[in-house]
Specification:
382 residues; mainly alpha; 77% helix; globular
Length: 382
């Protein structure tokens, strides 16, 4: 655990951004793990569910280039605050739509807007932090995300018994609106010297290292969008393990518990092993954690190894952010982050539809084997 003296050295921006993100993610994850089942209720078949996730993931990543350019041009705070305000009504309207295509359209628009703010998140954190506290800063940020991912499904497993999924989406929209006000009041702008977009200058940063990081992002998102942020864990738990919705939400909650417990330990592991070795070990271990799901059917084993997978993904997230810090220059930091995220994310976003094809022809179990293959390809690139 970090010392109180070290925590006092962390800028207020880090705490405001992390805490508001925590609250937003809690409400978001009361309903997100159940999205594949809700799309079924709205009339989508399994292939259309996989296609929906691909479209959502592409929307979330493709617009990060635009977000990066706008952030470097106009500043971090204005991008974060304005997009948070815009997302709230989109979630609210989507809750009242009864056909999966209409619902998906509003969800995709919301994800496009969310994507625009993502490069500003990382840039604001980097620019609010002294180099020696960077690991702690990203640990606090990832802790906010992980706590949200943990508490959201836990509360969702309780609330889904009393409220409908659209009710949970409405609650999520109201929380976004409230957090936008908090960010508007308390966040401090860090990018005071605005950067006019210049393609000739930007080209100087496109080198072999940048290309390798781009490939790393591609395979990393292929893995993540096939596991934690994809539809297959939920569908496998429902169709093969016969878990009810409340237990599925509980599995996601327990996964987050493990990640929270090991968050600060993860920072120490990264400092001890180094960025690269931590990245490699954590992503390989994350992929391997889904193999026991293929051979053991009980809730305890499923929840335990899902928890392990979340722990390793948490370590990987922290090491990934430090890797970004190492290879992005301040003047075009948000733009470069946006390009990396968009290239990797857009290609990686096809993993749900690839997984749906694998599921249809060979069975959903083979999707987890494909994830392991992705991790083996990724390792030599790091």
């Amino acid at each position: 655990m970090p010392k109180i003296k070290e925590l006092k050295q962390i800028d207020l921006n880090v705490y405001i951004l992390s805490s508001t993100l925590l609250v937003n993610i809690i409400l978001f994850f009361t309903w997100w793990p159940l999205l594949p089942l809700y799309l079924r209720k709205l009339g989508a078949n399994d292939f259309q569910i996989g296609l929906s996730y691909t479209i959502i993931n592409i929307a979330f990543t493709l617009f990060q280039v635009l977000g990066g350019i706008l952030s470097d041009r106009f500043g971090r705070k204005i991008l974060i605050v304005s997009t948070t305000f815009l997302v709230a009504p989109l979630y609210f309207i989507s809750a009242y739509l009864n056909y999966w295509i209409y619902f998906l359209i509003f969800l995709v628009i919301a994800d496009c807007i969310n994507a625009i703010q993502q490069p500003s998140f990382i840039s604001l954190l980097i620019e609010s932090t002294k180099e020696r506290f960077s690991a702690l800063t990203f640990t606090i940020f990832e802790l906010g995300i992980t706590l949200g991912v943990t508490l959201g499904p836990f509360f969702g497993s309780i609330l889904i018994k009393k409220f409908s999924l659209p009710d949970l989406i409405i609650m999520s929209s109201l929380t976004c609106f409230a957090s936008a006000f908090v960010r508007a009041v308390f966040l401090r702008e860090t990018h005071l010297k605005k950067t006019q977009f210049n393609l000739k200058e930007l080209k100087n940063y496109f080198n072999l290292n940048f290309a390798l990081i781009g490939l790393i992002f591609i395979f990393l998102t292929l893995i993540i969008f096939s596991t934690i942020y994809g539809p297959f864990i939920t569908m496998y738990a429902k169709d093969k393990l016969n878990f009810p919705e409340s237990k599925i939400n509980l599995i996601f909650a327990l996964g987050g518990v493990g990640a929270v417990i090991f968050t600060f330990l993860g920072a120490k592991i990264i400092n001890y092993l180094g960025i690269y070795l931590s990245f490699v070990i954590s992503i390989l271990a994350h992929a391997l954690c889904f193999f026991p799901w293929l051979y053991f059917k009980g809730f305890f084993i499923s929840a335990l190894f899902f928890m392990f997978s979340c722990v390793f993904l948490q370590i990987n997230s922290i090491s990934r952010n430090k890797l970004i810090t190492k290879f992005t220059a301040p003047a075009y930091r948000s733009t470069l982050i946006g390009i990396l995220s968009s290239i990797g994310g857009t290609i990686g976003a096809f993993s749900p539809i690839i997984g749906s094809i694998i599921q249809k022809n060979f069975g959903i179990e083979k999707v987890f084997i494909l994830v392991f293959i992705y991790s083996l390809i990724l390792i030599p690139l790091v």
